[in-house]
Recover the amino acids of this structure.
């Protein structure tokens, strides 16, 4: 969890956004009632949102960011490809055959492409009695040679899959855990969502949707069969690791206009937010607002960690300048609340009314 709060020696007014991702559900905890009151009594509610749909398509933080940028709500996971170096550089040290396999795999083009590019994440589908779930390869991600070997095994089927989509599709590797579905001939209607939204849940509600979604499910079925006895999965099984048996369809690498309503400087290690900053970078003389992400996952969500994060924000509020603006976003997976910290009052000299009141008090 990154909770660093930078300060500036400048007296010029500035604004800052604190994003407390994963904190929202703790507002109802009795042991933190006083801490939350200390924070929110200095704030006014700007807006709130909760996703009540049966098939959510984006996380709460993704929804808020899209709203602030002027985009339609969508998954932003595809932007995680933007901080990546060119494959030929990032894969230094691979065999010559591996480099040949990556010859066409370039970092995203800064200019909006005529084709579509959508993030694919190697993952594991598992079967339970009443549903099929998905998990990331948290036990051990793929390395370069493993990912290239798995990708090679799909080459013979790409032409058939292109016919299903009535387009020309390719699958490229940007990093071992960042693959890209590239649609070159004709744009198709298909929409994914971030793997983080679906992990550990029934995938039925989170799989790709759109006119061509049924064809993507056929692709997933074939990938599962092709990779079932693949040497990479045999080695993973011998090591007690989950097999790689699917590619999760995530967000687009080009989720919206690169001209946005608000510019942020994202203070975080999240790949998709670093990619978002690069994607929306403007050479215009326009100051970016610092956005500090303070994120707690389920294992970190404890009273002491929540209290520590809130106290750091309270500290920043108390030390702000008179003209400084602070916003606070509280998030869970499907809800957000947006607050603005009330402005400090300027100390002023007694005016006519104050003088009149004093004169009347002396009578």
């Amino acid at each position: 969890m990154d909770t660093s709060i930078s300060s500036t020696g400048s007296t010029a007014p500035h604004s800052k956004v604190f994003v407390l991702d994963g904190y929202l559900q703790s507002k109802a905890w009795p042991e933190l009632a006083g801490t939350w009151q200390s924070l929110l009594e200095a704030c006014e509610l700007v807006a709130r949102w909760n996703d009540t749909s049966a098939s959510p398509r984006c996380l709460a933080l993704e929804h808020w960011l899209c709203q602030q940028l002027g985009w339609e709500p969508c998954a932003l996971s595809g932007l995680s490809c933007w901080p990546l170096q060119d494959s030929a550089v990032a894969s230094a040290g691979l065999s010559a055959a591996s480099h040949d396999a990556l010859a066409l795999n370039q970092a995203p083009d800064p200019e909006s492409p005529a084709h579509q590019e959508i993030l694919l994440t190697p993952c594991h589908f598992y079967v339970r009695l009443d549903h099929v779930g998905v998990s990331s390869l948290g036990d051990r991600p793929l390395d370069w040679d493993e990912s290239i070997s798995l990708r090679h095994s799909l080459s013979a089927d790409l032409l058939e899959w292109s016919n299903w989509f009535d387009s020309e599709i390719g699958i490229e590797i940007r990093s071992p855990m960042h693959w890209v579905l590239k649609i070159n001939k004709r744009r198709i209607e298909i929409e994914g969502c971030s793997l983080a939204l679906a992990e550990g849940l029934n995938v039925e509600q989170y799989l790709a949707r759109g006119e061509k979604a049924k064809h993507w499910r056929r692709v997933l079925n074939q990938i599962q069969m092709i990779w079932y006895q693949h040497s990479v999965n045999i080695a993973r099984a011998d090591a007690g690791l989950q097999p790689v048996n699917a590619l999760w369809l995530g967000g687009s690498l080009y989720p919206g206009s690169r001209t946005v309503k608000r510019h942020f400087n994202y203070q975080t290690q999240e790949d998709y937010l670093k990619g978002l900053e690069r994607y929306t970078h403007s050479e215009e003389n326009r100051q970016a607002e610092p956005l500090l992400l303070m994120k707690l996952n389920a294992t970190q969500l404890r009273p002491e960690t929540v209290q520590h994060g809130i106290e750091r924000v309270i500290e920043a509020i108390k030390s702000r300048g008179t003209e400084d603006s602070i916003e606070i976003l509280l998030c869970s997976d499907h809800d957000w609340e947006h607050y603005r910290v009330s402005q400090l009052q300027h100390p002023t000299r007694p005016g006519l009314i104050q003088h009149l009141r004093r004169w009347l008090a002396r009578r």
